[in-house]
């Protein structure tokens, strides 16, 4: 379970970084194609993090449901 907690922490920090990157790209005022690519990359990273989080929490729910004393 400890490995799972470190994976959650890592994903959380990646999510913070990707959102900060996207906000920074917007605040800097996209003026060129490179700026739009930076913003697109940040959004793609955020979407990937959301998909990974969904998968991770579904996996955790399945693992917790295997315990007979757990009402999940």
What do these coordinates show?
- This protein has one domain (2-65).
- 82% of the residues lie in helices and 0% in strands.
- The protein is built from two helices and no strands.
- The chain has helices spanning 2-27, 33-65.
- The chain is elongated, with a radius of gyration of 17 Å.
- The model has no long low-confidence stretch (mean pLDDT 86).
What characteristics describe this protein?
72 residues, elongated, mainly alpha
What's this model, at a glance?
By secondary structure, the protein is mainly α. 82% of the residues lie in helices and 0% in strands. It is built from 2 helices and no strands.
Describe how the helices and strands are arranged.
Blueprint: H1 2-27, H2 33-65
Low-confidence runs of at least 5 consecutive residues:
none
Estimate the strand proportion: under 5%
Number of helices: 2
Topology pattern, helix = H, strand = E = HH
Structural class assignment = mainly alpha
For the record, the count of structural domains works out to: 1
Terminal-residue CA separation = 17 Å
Mean pLDDT: 86
Shape: elongated
Largest sheet: none
Radius of gyration: 17 Å
- Number of strand segments: 0
Q: Give the helix level as a range of percent.
A: over 70%
